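Sample A.
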Amino acid sequence: MNMAGAICMAAAMLGGPAICLAQAGAQAGGGAGESAGSAATFTLENLLELARRDNLALQSVRAQALAARAGVVTARAYPNPELEVLGASFRARSPGTLGGGGTAVGVTQRIENPALRGARADAATAGAQIAEIGIWVTENNLVAEVKTRFFETLRREEDLEAVREDLALTEQIRDRIRVRMRTGEAPRFDLIRADNEVALARKQVDLATARVAEAKAYLRQAVGAGLPESFGLTGDFYRKTPQADYAALRDAVLAANPELKRALADRARAEMQVRVEQAQVVPSVSLRLIQETEPETRVLRGGIALGVPLWDRRRGPIDEARAQAIRSRADADLRRFVLVQSFEAAWQQYQAALKALQALEGGILQQARTVVDIAEAAYRFGERGILEYLDARRQFRTVRADLISARFELHATKAELERLAASDIKGE
């Protein structure tokens, strides 16, 4: 049951059949203006599946993860040998000396410090892990955004249906006043005021229609090009109240949140980078083998080349890496603190929206509907003027808008809680 259906049911229980008839006419007229009947309709699960498949930002971080995994292969690779070939020309300068051509062939193989290679591979592996977690972070944020945009679109559609109902009712009231004015039961002022209310209601319909289109555009932007330009949504926005378990969600924030995991992985990589810089102080050894061919002799030479860390002991890069490690530890602690506080704030917003929804559904909306019925009956019997009746209807519209807004806030804060708890990502 949607919002208008629930209002119609409440009106029927309170003795407002004319309102229900007007609502039926509004729904019949509104259905022709919507393209959902001919366009494909999507559930929230369908949209999340499309987003995971077609969202370009998610595809980008997946490519980054592939590049990071390739970086691990690069870090573990052994250095290639170097081959050197030289030619020479010998010219005799004294009797008995042979001239002619000669060659020199040399091979150099650099032997890395095993500690350096291991530290570099560990740092690259940590970087690949960060990139993998980056996929989870992007997917987690994407899921929350799609959920929020989905319920935002449903909210705008509920608003549109509500203002269409208001337009139909206002036109019905205007027609009644016109009849009463012709019979002398109502002054012309009432008709002028009713015409103005109809104009305002039409303006609200146009505005709500534009907001539905805007919400759908943002939803398609979040999902990706896989979502067609013309589409409809299927979802239970009005009757189903989203529930949340405080203890389970709060525990999941510190255990599964990918942003915290990425911060911890970045801290580990920064600490490994310190090891990389320290290991580079010990120089690599190069083995060299050279064969020289001359007209009269052949010489084979072998040896090693070793850099001596005499002037540059990499104090600057080591201190820089240590500073980055300190910063990464602070960032991880800050991320943990921010996540906990963000969860508490989102939980309070959820509780506030839930209480507002319960209060509105528990009696405020029904009371506003009763006031409208009483004001309508009083106006019909001449006990109240048109201003009192229109004011009662305006108050009812405000309460109904608050109900729609509170339900959206409940869905949106539930999506934020699930984002913080990472309850819908597939990386876990």
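Sample B, a different protein:
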Amino acid sequence: MTTLDQALRQQLSHPLDTTPWSTIGGRALPRYDGKVRDCYIDKENGERIIVVTDRLSAFDAVVGTIPSKGQVLNQLAMFWFDKTKHIAPNHMLRVPDPNVMIARECVPLPVELVMRSYLTGVTSTSIWKAYEAGARTFCGHPLPEGMKKNQKLPDVILTPSTKAAKGDHDVSVSRDELLAMGRIDPQIFDRAAEIAAALFAEGQRHAAARGLILADTKYEMGISPDGAITVIDEIHTPDSSRYWYAEDYESRLAAGEEPRSLDKEYVRRWLAGEAKWSGDGPPPVMPDEVRLEAARRYIASFELVTGATFIPDTRDPLPRIAQALEAT
């Protein structure tokens, strides 16, 4: 057993599942818990303290925890925010702990910007499920006949998604449908769409140079206090993005096999396949071996994308994070 595997198995018994604090630095801060992130709002300083937990979300539900997942997501987001800051401003200010990002507080746009380059997916909102059911238009984009799962689309497309309340399901919509809902100003949406396209192009270019395919991703954006459209939440992580190995993509496509993936699609496939669960009712309990394999894939994505070796911090996460936050 490798040293990394030993560290991951050690973390199985004490994942960062949630944070318990009502005060940070002696101050009571408003708190918001997302599916993966616990956020503390520091209104006085215009900042958001984001603690990235080990929770895993699939089919719009929290389905369990993955060892070191929060550390991987936070450090990959840090890498990509730094790498793409010339394309668009982002909310990152500093990273005082492997699981923590201090960010500029922004007003979120009420839409996720989903960029797609391949006909794939297993969720109810995926482009492949729509195509398989007979749809030849997706979010206003025409799709040709005769395509097969995981095939590259003729063009990169933007497929916006409404941001559902916690526990509900997101809905994919066209630009016209979104604007008809009156949720967002057309000029703000179009500028956000331009940013998403530029970020995706940069992500695909870098991924290709690292032997990977960035098949699709989603971006969240907000308006900063100075009025700028700003990238928030995360960017190009295995939670928000679908990464495939490039070297055998074509041969596996020709054989009708799924691409080798480096994202949470592995867990989605386990849930929808072996566990026969796709979002309705309580999720099944993930076996430790599924959790460990998912952790290995998250870590492999970090190392392949960044070129750096991932070294997990195996200290008990809550006292470690509390100490880091007290020092900020």
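Observation for Sample B: The domain at 108-254 is CATH 3.30.470.20 (D-amino Acid Aminotransferase; Chain A, domain 1).
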